[in-house]
Prior knowledge:
73% helix, two-stranded parallel ribbon, 15 helices
Amino acid sequence: MNIDLDMYQMTAVAVVVYYVGLRLKRRFNIFDQYCIPAPVIGGVLFSLLNLVMTTGGFWQLTLDTSLQGFFMTMFFTSIGYTASLRMLKEGGLSVLKLVAVCAVLIVMQNLVGIGLASVFNLGPLIGMATGSIPMVGGHGTAGSFGPLLEQMGAQGAATVAIAAATFGLVMGSVIGGPIARYLIDKDNLFCFECVQEPVHKTPVVGKEAYAVDKEYFLFGIGQLLVAMGIGSWITGLITSFGVTFPSYIGAMLAAAVIRNLSDLTGRYEVFSKEIDVMGSVSLSIFLSMALMGLKLWQLSELALPLVVMLLAQTAMMALFARFVIFNLMGRDYEAAVITAAGCGFGMGATPNAMANMNAIVARYGPAPKAYFIVPLVGSLFIDFINAFIITLFLNMF
């Protein structure tokens, strides 16, 4: 039986897939514990169903992903609007140091991936699909760069990247806490100066307590669309010179310029809340679509190499966190907490980093410096850095 979903039907199913994932996440605590996004839960479930039905000969599913690129670009454009140089300056030297450390980590993840891919004769692009694209980048970057890698000739790269991102989400949460606890206990790194203060607790993410203003949402969506339009022109200009340049990076650049001109001149407002809401909606739909299209049967030939490559990334992340992040961030209690967070967003996402930190401070005491630095770097700057370093690597092949 042949089933063809047009772009409207595909979007509708993607929304249903998201809600199924959300329901399962609320029902089973393990998903929430490891910060697995709802679109990933629902999308993987759908891809498993597709695997069974396709290999069993029950259906042949064709998906129209025309809108996937639109939602992907809108999400990354919203990320561009968060890249405030003023906030980077206010963060001080510690923020700059962590940004530099993350840049080194990104390069190392890609070198490990490419190196092991050459050992298994898989080609450098498959190596990139297990490097910083899924590790630091998470599912969002994996879903956007995976199809690009396949266009460049790496069959199954999109599926590998998504699988690696899911693995990274779990392992980033597994290794972060133990490494930090080892460092703290080994050197007795307690936060003595703030031991009397209440333990820092991250606010529960929920509905924002502000009224919905249709005009503000129009302005926010308008700013996203304007940046996407300008970004399309930027991307077309750069690719005309024969450079591999992912389509959404131009939009991120345009959004960053608009944001920083607003900060600098104060002549107009950036509607950050509205942009953030639309970015979150776009990410959920985009991820659902990306995971619905996974061809899991392509992983059979890559099973052993993929396991080895992902275990190597885990070992490298643990060593990097222990000997690089901890040492460069000060070798004190705050540095140990940042080390736990580094494992979180170095192999997963910022929520993993925050969850790792929460587990540490609940036992050892508050770490106000870490709670300021990590969200700033993990949420605002690391995606930008990762996208540009990945682009540099891709232009080497």
